[in-house]
From TrEMBL:
Principal localisation: cytoplasm
Protein purpose: Catalyzes the phosphorylation of pantothenate (Pan), the first step in CoA biosynthesis.
Gene Ontology CC annotation, any one: cytoplasm
Name this polypeptide is given: Type III pantothenate kinase
Species, as recorded: Fuerstiella marisgermanici
Length: 280
């Protein structure tokens, strides 16, 4: 069995996610390290990546693979790619992801949505309907039927974006900080009924986001049966920077840190990547 370390990079609209995986043909990629850098906090992603690899002590990257919903930031990282011996394979288009895409315009679907759908079906919900929730800059709630076909989904503003929208487009609403990666939200953090503006926004944003996701989950579960005759019990997979906050309230659901990276790591074990010469 060929064993190797794969570097996967997913450049989102808020954060770039870095992952090192142990990958082997015909085996699920194993996480070695995952990290994320806020784009607003760095001028030089390439330097951050290099620094991170040094810190985690992974010196022998055998192949690198990159994608992202934020092409300008992705491209600036590509231009100053720090690993001369491991030029990254770019996953840019739906034709690079081995998943059938049943929507009007497959080319317009965010590559992050396809990668999470692919990882969900191949790694976490192989014989089930999968509902994939990515709580990122935007929140996306997507359907993958048990035959592994991406059926589309819904896009709504994410928690942070919604907080900014309330502040930026009103005269009197304060900017509420919703950032809380890794910490579950307690009901006391978002009290209902809110007794002041701060609490009203907090509870509106959090329970509203949660309610929207639940409604979409229920509609997608119904659509799986009614439109696609898919009667398997749906699995709900949750990822993204807001995922951990939402996860306790979306049960049963499984939270997976940076699910798109898992999709990239899995892709790196496919024939095309193995033969592409991306070896350090
Ligand atoms: N410290 C934080 N900084 C930024 N976003 C955070 C933080 N904590 C939680 N979040 C949530 O994570 C979301 C961004 O998730 P992320 O996975 O980084 O998105 P993207 O894939 O779009 O880059 C924000 O909208 C916000 O709701
Ligand atoms: C919806 C998204 C902005 C989500 O990106 P993210 O918030 O995770 O950075 C991205 O998937 C995107 O730009 N999609 C293009 C339109 C579509 O998926 O149909
Ligand atoms: K994303």
């Amino acid at each position: 069995m060929t064993q190797q370390f794969t570097l996967a990079v997913d450049v989102g609209n808020t954060r770039a996610k870095f992952g090192v995986f142990e990958t082997a043909i015909a085996a699920a990629p194993q996480v070695v390290e995952i990290s994320a850098v806020r784009l607003a906090d760095t001028e030089d992603l390439a330097h951050e990546l290099q620094q991170w690899l040094t810190n985690v002590g992974v010196s022998k990257i055998r192949c690198a693979i990159i994608a992202g919903s934020n092409p300008p930031a992705r491209d600036s990282l590509l231009e100053s790619w720090p690993l001369a011996n491991s030029p990254p394979r770019l996953i840019e288009s739906h034709v690079d992801v081995p998943i059938e895409v049943d929507v009007d315009e497959p080319a317009r679907v965010g590559i992050d949505r396809l990668l999470t759908a692919y990882a969900a079906h191949r790694l976490f919900a192989a014989r089930q309907t999968a509902i994939v929730v990515d709580s990122g800059t935007a929140t996306t709630v997507n359907l993958v039927t048990s035959d592994g076909v991406f059926r589309g989904g819904s896009i709504l503003p994410g928690l942070r974006l919604s907080a900014y929208a309330l502040h930026d487009y009103t005269a009197r609403l304060p900017l509420i900080n919703t950032d809380n990666i890794g910490q579950p939200v307690e009901p006391s953090d978002a009290p209902v009924p809110g007794r002041n503006t701060d609490q009203a926004i907090r509870s509106g944003l959090f329970w509203g986001q949660l309610g929207a996701i639940k409604e979409l989950q229920s509609r997608l579960s119904f659509a799986a049966v009614e439109q696609f005759s898919d009667r398997t019990a749906p699995a709900c997979l949750l990822t993204g920077g807001g995922g951990r906050q939402l996860s306790p309230y979306l049960s049963p659901s499984v939270y997976i840190d940076s699910l798109a990276l898992h999709g990239l790591a899995l892709l790196s074990t496919s024939e095309k990547a193995v033969n592409s010469g991306n070896r350090g």
